[in-house]
Amino acid sequence: MSNEARIPPAAVRRLAGTAVLLLAPRLDDEPRARATLDLAFALQKAGARAIVASRRGPLVDALHAVGIDWIPLAHDSINPFRLRGNARRLERLITAERVDIVHAYSAGGAWSALAATEKLPVWLVTTFPDAVPARFSLRTFYWSALARGDKVIARSSFVAGPIIQRFGIARDRVAIVPAAVDADLFDPATMRPDRVLALRKSWGVPNGNRIILVPGPLAPSEGQDVLVKAVAMAPRELLQDVTFVLIGDVRAHRRYAQALMETAKRHRIASLFVKPGPCPDWPAALAAADFVVMPAVTQRLHGEPVLQSQAMARPVIASAVGILPEHLLAPPRMPKSLRTGWVVPPGDPQALAETLTEVLSLDLAGYRALAARARRFAEFMFSPQNVAASVLRIYNELLEGGFDALHTQLIPTINPTNAAATSYLVPRAHH
């Protein structure tokens, strides 16, 4: 069954008055499920009808509270008998409720939706998981259903590129919609000072010291050893009032953590580092920081700390690995006037040392401007409302008759007066 074999839906329609069926993950209180709720709420606000089908979870009550229909459906199975049963049930549901768009978030849901919509004039949208598919594997075949949507959503260009190559998807069918960040939870304006002071005290940070936060487990893949070497190269006069807080679990790599401190001792900088372990109050940890450094040396598929740091108005230094560079603004992708952080080559202590020198040399006015810009960027691009608006925009373009009207820029343009309209899309192939 190919996309071409499916009956094309009618063109020139508007989102208001349509019905959208969301084949969502289990509605537990976790980011993907919350994103589904945000999308359902946005559909309702836009005058469309949202129907959510998923396994039961604690967030179901939030749908019922605002009158959004929820249908129990375990659609994430790849059992052939379950897939057939789900497809028949979905076909009946789509017909009875006059559904216009089906959005599948799992491969099992996509297989069932493909079968259910084969003879129905319905748009199919799919969202890929945050993973790079292997060239040949059972999982690649399993995920191939997700590649057959009329529109395929990925959360980063780092994932979108391999998806396009593995499954031969036309570039203009792939849209990049990033993960959302809770801009209210990570808001410096509402953070209670006592939470921040309690963390500084528990970490043993001297009064008045600036904090550079290094999130993630202490592990070779996270690159803390590169950071220690970089700090050893930085000018000592810039480090006199700085504490590096390595916040993360050390249990899996105790020898690595020990080697880090031994290296720091040899360079006489051990007093600049503290290892408090995991932090139970992550928003307060970011609020306590002045900068955040993510010196990872292996590919990263998740970049939430970069988003959350900027939402908390904390500039980020990130390695150019995986998804990390996509979620901040830095030269050469963007001019310095739009900078919200720095991107450095992975595993390069000298480059990181030079960046630390630049960061620690900022005057107060420069730092405040940078921090405010990071906060604005996070609000404009990654707030739940604006991320949901990006998906609604994809729905609208499908309903209006195709893909030609979609923007085709990889790097987002920040337009503070119309941030909700900004989208991330993979560029078209030029012929």
Top keywords for this entry?
elongated, eight-stranded mixed β-sheet, 14 helices, Rossmann fold, six-stranded parallel β-sheet, 14 strands, alpha/beta, 2 domains, 431 residues
Morphology call? elongated
Count the E strands: 14
- Our count of domains comes out at 2
Helix count, DSSP H or I runs of 4 or more residues? 14
Q: Share of helix among residues? A: 25-40%
Helix-strand category:
alpha/beta
- Main sheet specs: 8 strands, mixed
**Largest sheet, spatial ordering of strands:** 3-2-1-4-5-6-7-14
Unreliable stretches: 403-431
- The portion of residues forming beta strands comes to 5-15%
Question: N- to C-terminal separation?
Answer: 27 Å
CATH superfamily placement of the largest domain = Glycogen Phosphorylase B
Rg on CA atoms, Å? 23 Å
Average pLDDT confidence is 88
Output the CATH class name of the largest domain. Answer: Alpha Beta
Examine the secondary-structure arrangement and name the CATH architecture of the largest domain: 3-Layer(aba) Sandwich
**CATH fold topology of the largest domain:** Rossmann fold
In summary, what is this structure?
Helices cover 38% and strands 14% of the residues. The protein has 431 residues and is an alpha/beta fold. An 8-stranded mixed sheet has the order 3-2-1-4-5-6-7-14, sandwiched between helices.
What can you tell me about this protein's structure?
This protein folds into two domains: 221 residues, Glycogen Phosphorylase B (Rossmann fold, 3-Layer(aba) Sandwich), CATH 3.40.50; 188 residues, Rossmann fold (3-Layer(aba) Sandwich), CATH 3.40.50. 46% of the residues are buried. It contains 14 helices and 14 strands. Strand 11, helix 11 and strand 12 form a beta-alpha-beta unit. Helix content is 38%, strand content 14%. The chain has 431 residues and is α/β, with parallel strands linked by helices. The strands form two sheets. Strands 3-2-1-4-5-6-7-14 form an eight-stranded mixed β-sheet, sandwiched between helices. A six-stranded parallel β-sheet has the order 10-9-8-11-12-13, with helices on both faces.
